[in-house]
Amino acid sequence: MKRRQFIKYTSLGVASCGITACTQGNLDVFRPQGTLANPDKAFGPLEKTNLTLGFMATTDAAPLIIAQEKGFFERYGLIVTLKRQPSWEAIENDLLEWRLDAAQTPFTLPMEVQLGKKQAPLIALMNLNLNGSAITITQKAWKKGVRPSIDYNNFSDFERGFRQYIRNHNQSVRWGIDSPVSMDAYLLRYWLSAMGIDPDREIELLEFPAAQLNYKLQAGMLEGYIASAPWTQTALSEEAGFISYISRDIWQGHPNKILAAMDGWVRKNPATARALMAALLEACQYCDRQGRAFSDRHRSQTEIPELLAQPQYLNLDSSLIKSTLGGTYLYSNEESTKTVVEIPDFIIFNYQDTPYLQTPDHANYPWRSHAIWLLTQMIRWNKNDLKTYPKDADKLLDKIYPISLYEEVAKTLNIPIPNDTLKTEKATAFIDGRSFDPSEPVAYLNQFSIRASRPQIVSFV
């Protein structure tokens, strides 16, 4: 292994862009051009002004919290109550029963609900962030020679030792997830299978709320877990484990959390839904302008971490939140290797100048190609009994991820959007060097030797 003190693209974040340059230059492209004269009237009379929004205690709930704390909801005529939920399942149930008007959910949830047994019309309105999760491994693995990804020359160097470590266990290896239908769960499967480890045959996935994952790791119930920040850093503070991979390095620029609502609610409250999206778009912009810092002037920035850390929100020490929002990241507490790594794009709420996110692309745009990728992975693992790529996939995805709604709001705010809804992911975007062409989903699926329907050629129904 070769020790490295930085990871890919770090220099781009510091030298080429710099956080001051991002906030004063490129990020301004996605700010509203001028101030709306009457933002509370921008979408017409609001059908409903008092809203209840659900969220989970994760860093990527920041847009909702900041919109509340900094007055973005009020700016658009909305009076919002934020309701912290104990699990993604609780959020799903409350959305389906209309006890919540909208909520922060995993990118995957609307598709899982619409194509699953419930077949409820839950839809995605906009992305809230890209990246933002990480894989934590027990400290026992460290003693066996496993190290954080930054200690290796490349993924191939890491995978050989890790695969051997996993297969030296005499029983199935248990891994923690916060939901079987979360984006994190799909990324964990992708990461494991890229190393030749079958997540259905060699790994037992156990579901726990993110706040409990570290306790399960400490108790020896789990070999590791994947979760959104800041829960990945708690294992370090308790010396229970270390960070192996961040999700950005599994798929650069992957969608993570979204704003979701019932289709019927949006149709009943069209102006309210658009005002809500506009308020959160401004909050996402604010998070990226104010939350990160690489210049000395901004290194003491604590406003957003302290707001998120409050008891009614994440209820955590703000230092755990600051490490990921500020663009710095700690992989291990081991004294021999302890180092803070600069990762300006660990989590992106609106825009960062990176090799995979360039204007007019931005984090909040709901790419159709992202939905197609998710559908291929659901078929790959036979989720909801999906075994073939459906002929009416375009129609299904139009219903679940209605891009036109977002484009309407973006136009009102003078936010430029891509000319196409499909984006080809380059080979450099994925950890296994496999590119993704959304116009060829069946060919993409057939590349994978590890899949639930391995003997079957995936084709259109």
TrEMBL record:
Put simply, this protein is called Nitrate transport protein, NrtC like protein
Where is it located? Answer: Cell inner membrane
Cross-referenced InterPro entries, in alphabetical order? Answer: NrtA/CpmA_ABC-bd_dom (IPR044527)
Q: Which GO terms describe its cellular component?
A: plasma membrane
The principal localisation class reads membrane
Q: Enumerate the CDD domains for this protein.
A: PBP2_NrtA_CpmA_like (cd13553)
Q: Which PROSITE patterns match?
A: PROKAR_LIPOPROTEIN
Query: What is the organism of origin for this protein?
Result: Rippkaea orientalis (strain PCC 8801 / RF-1)
What keywords are assigned to this protein?
Cell inner membrane, Cell membrane, Ion transport, Membrane, Transport
One Gene Ontology biological process:
monoatomic ion transport
- Gene3D superfamilies with a match to the protein in the record: Periplasmic binding protein-like II (3.40.190.10)
